[in-house]
Amino acid sequence: METIRNFLVLLLVTAVVAKNIPDKVDELGRLVDPFGPGEYAINHTAYRQALNLFLDTNLDVYAPNATGNFPVIYFITGFGGTVPAEAHTLLLTQMASHGYVVVSVWKLGSPVDSFDPAWFEAAVEFVETRLENSLHNQEGYVSDFHVGYLHSFLSGHSAGTHVAVTQFQQNCLNYQGLILIDAVDGNNPIPENVTLTVITPGQKVNFTVPTLQIVTGLDPVIGVYGLACAPEELSGKRFFDAMTGPTWYVNATAYGHIDLMDPGYTDLNDVLKFCPSDPETPKYDYIQFLVGEIVSFVNGVLDPVGNCALFDNLETSGLVGVNTENEFASNGWQRCSPLQCVLTPSSSPFFSFW
Ligand SMILES: *[C@@H]1O[C@H](CO)[C@@H](O)[C@H](O)[C@H]1NC(C)=O
Ligand SMILES: *[C@@H]1O[C@H](CO)[C@@H](O)[C@H](O)[C@H]1NC(C)=O
Ligand SMILES: *[C@@H]1O[C@H](CO)[C@@H](O)[C@H](O)[C@H]1NC(C)=O
Ligand SMILES: *[C@@H]1O[C@H](CO)[C@@H](O)[C@H](O)[C@H]1NC(C)=O
Ligand SMILES: *[C@@H]1O[C@H](CO)[C@@H](O)[C@H](O)[C@H]1NC(C)=O
After folding, report:
1. Which of 170, 274, 276, 322 lies most in the core, judged by the most C-beta atoms within 10 Å?
2. Cα 71 to ligand 2 centre (Å)
């Protein structure tokens, strides 16, 4: 059974490589598949509220110690950035191996504080002004390594996504895309107790940016403690329906809210049953799947003309053996045309720029 499954996965992966030819090759000249390991070895550097660096959040940086100008992907952890990045080393390392500076931002404390955009901007300021020097001088990174922050992407998991949305409501800064994973709105896990939100159902957000939203089938399922990890009214379509740029909605139907975490955490969840999860689904395949979706989205947005075929990966079920339900709202975007982030304040609701 296992052999047959592996064989089918191999067939699927081969089919994907044949269909979308990414323009990246490894050091042996082999094509790099967005759903497989990337071409770079990755180093990890932890910054812990280093106030001497004017930093009051924790940053975990995963980056290639190699020549290049690597785009930045921020990743805000769950519960409003209060989950340590250590829960996500597999996901973040494999993302970075495709040639990005992945910066996980988190801070233990009240998720309510994370609704203040200043919280996250301090981290961005550090990345844009000090990170490259720090990696060169303290970590011995090669001199031709550069933090390509002019091409930045903002991603978040669970309630970390409201931090990302709050950012876009203020300023596009250097962000080119938004990645929402199991997005949850609100400052309280009990829907009736929520007093702060970033999305108002029935209203569009006041920014326009290409968005990838990944959700799971078990997100809205109520667990043994009587709560869903992503209650239906605070997650899923609440975000998708509010977006005004091209938005892909990918639902990994067999997976659960925290299946993207490292095995130690998902094993613990199997015991504690904190978020509903199916112990039979292969979690490592799911992480590879998420990396492939994110890499396809980022490389598509960075070069929508040359890499337009990568968007097909966001609209296809069964990649790496992960079944999905896929939806796409173009919101007026002409496929394969250039993309950018703009603020669309409510005074000009029909502002259009594509
Ligand atoms: C950086 O990563 C490489 C490749 O994984 C590893 O061999 C090396 O020990 C790492 N450097 C440090 C200082 O950890
Ligand atoms: C980065 O590479 C340089 C040159 O090979 C090496 O001296 C330095 O220790 C590496 N840094 C890390 C963090 O591995
Ligand atoms: C939710 O609100 C109820 C009623 O006000 C309160 O008793 C309860 O402690 C609240 N729960 C949380 C987690 O805030
Ligand atoms: C994902 O799809 C499953 C199966 O159709 C559905 O039960 C679930 O509500 C969907 N999840 C979200 C967040 O849309
Ligand atoms: C966008 O909307 C949010 C939430 O309503 C608001 O706080 C923010 O000031 C708005 N931004 C702009 C630039 O109008």
Report:
1. 322
2. 20
